[in-house]
Amino acid sequence: MTHDSAHGSGTRDAEAEGTAAPRLTTREAAERLGVKPETVYAYVSRGQLSSRRTPGGRGSTFDAAEVDALARRTGRREPSSSAGDLVFRTGITLIEPDRYFFRGVDATELARHHGYEEVAEWIWTGELRPGIRFTAADESLTAARRTAAAMPRHSSPTDRLRAAAAAAASSDPLRFDLSPEGVLASARNLIPTLVGALPMAGAPEGGAGEGAQGGASDSLAAQLWEKLTARPADAASLAVLDTALALLADHDLAASTLAARVAASTHAHPYAVVSAGLGVLEGPLHGAASGPAHRMLSEAVDRGGAAPVVADHLRAGRRVPGLGHRLYKGEDPRASVLFALLDAVPQAAPAMAAARDVVATTARHTPLHANVDLALAVLSVTYGMPAEAGETVFAVSRTAGWIAHAMEEYTERPLRMRPSGQYTGPRPPQPLPVPLPVQEGTGGAAN
Fold first, then answer.
1. Quick one: 116 exposed, middle or buried, by C-beta within 10 A (0-12, 13-18, 19+)?
2. Checking CA distances to 292, which of 70, 115, 171, 426 falls within 20 to 30 Å?
3. The pLDDT value given to residue 57
4. In what order do the strands lie in the sheet with 52-53?
5. Is the distance from CB of 119 to CB of 110 less than 8 angstroms?
6. Is the peptide bond before 429 cis (omega within 30 degrees of 0)?
7. 192-202: average pLDDT
8. Does 395 score more than 90 pLDDT?
9. What mean pLDDT comes out for the span 420-434?
10. Distance separating alpha carbons of residues 208 and 227, to the nearest angstrom
11. 130: left (phi over 0), alpha (psi -120 to 50) or beta
12. How many Å apart are CA 107 and CA 98, to the nearest integer?
């Protein structure tokens, strides 16, 4: 075994040579620098690092103090995995087989016993604040409502949320305060602002939700409810929505959360971080996945069973929505909690029966379990919400997680996420391209 492959051999090298300064192997130097071993030799070739051949001429060693000094100059002290990928240190969410935890506490238990705002505070600060309510600043809410109301009639709720986030940012002169206190103040203002900017359910398309600012005693779930459906809410229905918001607040490094952390690594303010997350969330494989589940479940209820609906999906070569999750072998624990609550709601019985029929019918061919998208579909179908309601719930809820990850990222080395592309285009030098002839009607100069 060479010295380069023998982890911990640097101390033996120092002892053998009788020197006081410890020597590091190439692999150890690479780990301290947060780079690949090939990069260590690149530093040597550029004169940024000196090396010494080991006795016998196999491998090199490096002075530990010199390596540490280079690490301080370059700022590259990221922990590296065996694949050379960036490792994210996070104390927010841990996902284990069929369970997940917020700051070490079972997330499903938190959601069963505490409302969304309380869970958000726990994720942000590690402190539980019973009864806390988020309130939007008047300037922020007014700007967000006006902006959202000015959007085209066909704009989706997520379109309006992104516009509302930008408008809220413009009205907050302290948005660049990235201290923990400043970020928390922005977050507590932004989340109710997003909800307040959505139109009231049943209002003319494009109208703003002028009547839904909510009082100090109104939970965020109560404020959001009237944006999702015109049906009145009772305690049981609000409990389902509030629990859904709490359950979805974070889920480790999902795609939208990764985008949010990339934005935070540039020290973008919290509103911009949330905008980055919203842009990714709209993908059909992420936050928008509940829409197809809603439409499938609604059709199954109308047709009196899931079999013909599942058959249509299979015949068309489409996967059955609302089933399976790459992180859970069994049923998504978030779905399990919501199904238990919905089972106690009499009007949810038809949608619940259809959901269980979907799972049972699909299981004849593929053993997939329900995920949270199917549970959100049961909620939205039961209460006459639109197909995009699940995506709206997802977006509002996950804002808390994006803020939590931004707070972590603000403490890391800025701009640490800078991968290198593997260029596959034509090798330079290439000749200048030949301009295409200008055709009539394509914007050429007018004579």
1. buried
2. 115
3. 58
4. 23-25, 60-63, 52-53
5. yes
6. yes
7. 96
8. yes
9. 93
10. 10
11. beta
12. 12
